[in-house]
Amino acid sequence: MILLRRLLGDVLRRQRQRQGRTLREVSSSARVSLGYLSEVERGQKEASSELLAAICDALDMRMSELMREVSDELALAELAQSAASDTVSSLGAPAGRGLGDRPMLNSVRVPRVTPVGHPDEHVTIKASAEAVDVVAA
Fold first, then answer.
1. What pLDDT is attached to residue 83?
2. Percent of the chain's residues with pLDDT above 70
3. CA triplet 117, 118, 123: central angle to 5 degrees?
4. How far is residue 93 CA from its own chain's centroid?
């Protein structure tokens, strides 16, 4: 299961680390307890929109940037999850369905792009050729 709070926490932690800042510095600037910020970054607490706004301000980051990065990661996670369940379903072929009823899966390499636009790693996702349109910007 994909948890939004974990994706939010991952993005916030990466942004803080990119800036070379400590949890203490950001929590002080955002007026959030250090422990609570740590739990948000680890995906253990759901952050309210007010709290996210305060953390974004402390990180000198727009809320829209945070949401865009989380949205991109969520899309990749959903594709990976869908591909994994399709693979398992194809291997298990539920009653009344043959293996030929499922689309063939192809590997798709998707570059992960940092906010400044530089590819830093690649993720391989297995997805149906009909289900994925890749558009280069």
1. 83
2. 63
3. 105
4. 30
Tell me: the pLDDT tens digits for 47-71? Answer: 999 999 999 999 999 999 999 999 9
Which tokens sit at 129? 């050729």
Q: How many residues are present in the chain?
A: 137
Residues contacting residue 5 through CB under 8 Å, at least 6 positions apart: 40, 43, 44, 45, 46, 47
Distance (Å, whole) CA 23 – CA 7: 18
The answer to whether residue 73 scores a pLDDT higher than 90 is: yes
* DSSP result, 24-86: HHHHHHHT--HHHHHHHHTT-SPPPHHHHHHHHHHTT--HHHHHHHHHHHHHHHHHHHHHHHH
Question: pLDDT value at position 119?
Answer: 46
**Distance separating alpha carbons of residues 76 and 47, to the nearest angstrom:** 22
- Alpha-carbon span 110 to 134, nearest angstrom: 9
